[in-house]
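anyone seen this seq b4? input:
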Amino acid sequence: MASLVSSTRSAARATYSAYKRQPIRWRLAGGSAALTLVILLGFAVIVGTLTTRAIYKDFNRQVSSAADRLQAQQYYEYYQNDRKGHPQYRFPIDLDAFAASTNAAIRVVTGTGRYFASSKGAPNFGRPISESEEIHGWKVETREIQIYAPSNPEYDFRIFAQYGRRISDVRATANRVKLFLGLGVLGGTALALLAGLATARRAMEPIAELTDAAREIARTRDPAGVIPRPQADDEVAELSLTLESMLHALDDARTETEAALVRQREFVADASHELRTPLTSVLANLELLEETLTGEHREAAASALRSSRRMRRLVADLLLLARADAGREPPKRSVDLSSVVTDAASELEPVAGDHEISISAPHGLEIEGVQDELHRLVLNLMENALRHTDPGTAVEASVERSNGHIVLAVEDDGPGIPPELRDKVFERFFRAHGDRSGSSGLGLAIVRAVAESHQGTVKLEPPLDGRGARFVVRFPVKKPSESKA
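predicted toks r here
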């Protein structure tokens, strides 16, 4: 019993869960159709019961009335004996005609059930027992028939007329009524479902408009978008006002956030710029101390000098990123990217160690940009390749013109970058797990910032010939009018 209750509850929960997963319009239409089905079923049961009762009652009344007419019209009159001495009777009406007119069967018998007369094809109803009874699927009404034998009282005895009609005739009529009622219930339910769907669709149109408006706002990311407001003062209108208020609040919050970010970027840019002067002074003093001190004091000064140089590099990186974020772009001029790559390779040559640096950069590939920033971009890409590859491996930088772009590519023979990290390497302060190279995590972020400030793109593309990593930067080709200027 407990398992049955548990299974019933599980089935009920599953049904309810399936119902909750359906769209609202289907739930509304389904609820309306279910309610209509219950109402129509109740109506059909009541009407069907009353109608079938009336049909059977009318049938019984017709059978009884027809038997009464037969009794009133039918009698037998003795007039003579035949040659064998059997009595002969006159029949006032034709039993076959009377039976055919009412689709019935008539049988005349004595009180003991002995056959006396019948209509064509009439079955044997047995001896008469009561006035009204059902016999083998027939509704039979029994009436006593008078016999007149004034000239021979010997043949004056009692006979009975059994008038019967098939119950299947009225049962078929009742079944047709039930069928029509059943079809009416199904048809009414189907119409209620369709009407419910149409009504729900009309009712959900304001919600659909709100959804389209919200989807458009999500696509454009513009909280100042217009939210449609229904004419009716209902729950949908309240939802529209709530969404509109929410968007205004989000717009205000975004404005405040953007203003705060702008102030923060300007502060970082100004702070980074102001830090360059004291750092330069500190570096000069530390370099002087390193030259004049000896022993442990010299080593301490050298360590401080290395940290200060690293800090100057970090401040320069932060200044570059802050200027890019704040939109402070230095004036641009024509820059030969091939010369920039050559200068960066020359700068890294003394610290390349056992790495082999090769360059393929024909002169004359000019773009419009800031030379210092482009130098930082190339330097960061090549330093990144040297830092993350083993000694003895090759690093190659190339510049070429391709499909309307100046393409800078830096490749190495290192272990490459795992697929799960390829979308994160350009994030600020990102360093792979276990990276002990001392990198600040800003190198590739600066590469992307410089590329975008020059209307270019940077991507980590699949390596050629199974090599390690391949970074490709594409810049738009300088227009002839800009070249002349």
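The CA atoms of residues 104 and 265 lie 106 Å apart. The longest helix spans residues 235-292. kinda curious what u guys think
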